[in-house]
Amino acid sequence: MSELNIISAVLGPVATNCYTVHHVQTKDAVIIDPAESGEHIVKMIEEQGLILRAILLTHGHFDHCMAVPRLKKEYPEVPVIIGEKDASFLESPELNLAEPFIGSDFSIKADRTVKDGEVLEFLGTKIECIEVSGHTPGGICYYFPEEHLLFDGDTLFRGSIGRSDFPGGNSGELLRGIEKKLLTLPEETLVFPGHDDPTTIQREIADNMYF
In the chain, which stretches have pLDDT less than 50? Predict the structure, then answer.
């Protein structure tokens, strides 16, 4: 089992959780949902002596990727990865919801897309891509099976679930996806959502009002 450390920060206009996961020995790192303040993130990477290997986006809404342009300027070789069904959301200010918040020209291109069940290898460990649609058409939850860590964006929250009233949303798909793909993970799995506090699969099976 690899030795991983998680650095979390709440950033941006809607208090989005940004996670930096790194291997304590090699210093290799991935950033999940760089919400805002690219300067803050770059400074953190430099101060920690980290080597950024990938930028993982759980979905295409602007508040989960606002720092991507700054990070790509600093680390142009680092790939931006997102679910294949959400790649178009990054490019459209209407779909990524940026227009009323930061203007009508916010558009990003992913370097790589992933599918449900695809396995990434970073930080000396495997990262499983679990697609759960409903908040957006192609939301990806990144699951570290060796460490029982889940970074699920705006899919499952502590005691709640993500919204499904945005473009491409579907409440039925969201509920079914969570129940079949997330609540079946080991109960000790730590869940790191896109907003608010972490939780566990065990807690959500027991207490989430939607299940």
Answer: 1
Tens digits of per-residue pLDDT, 193-209?
999 999 999 999 999 99
Q: What is the pLDDT of residues 164-181, one digit of tens each?
A: 999 899 999 999 999 999
DSSP 160: E
Q: How far apart are the C-alpha atoms of 179 and 177, rounded to whole Å?
A: 5
pLDDT at position 92: 86
User: Which of 52, 43, 101 is CA-nearest to residue 72?
Assistant: 52
Contact between 12 and 36 under an 8 Å Cβ cutoff? The reply is yes
Which helix H or strand E contains 9, and what residues bound it? strand 4-11
- Residue 19, burial from CB neighbour count under 10 angstroms (0-12, 13-18, 19+): buried
Burial 23-53 (b: 16+ CB within 10 A, else e): beeeebbbbbbbbbbbebbbebbeeeebebb
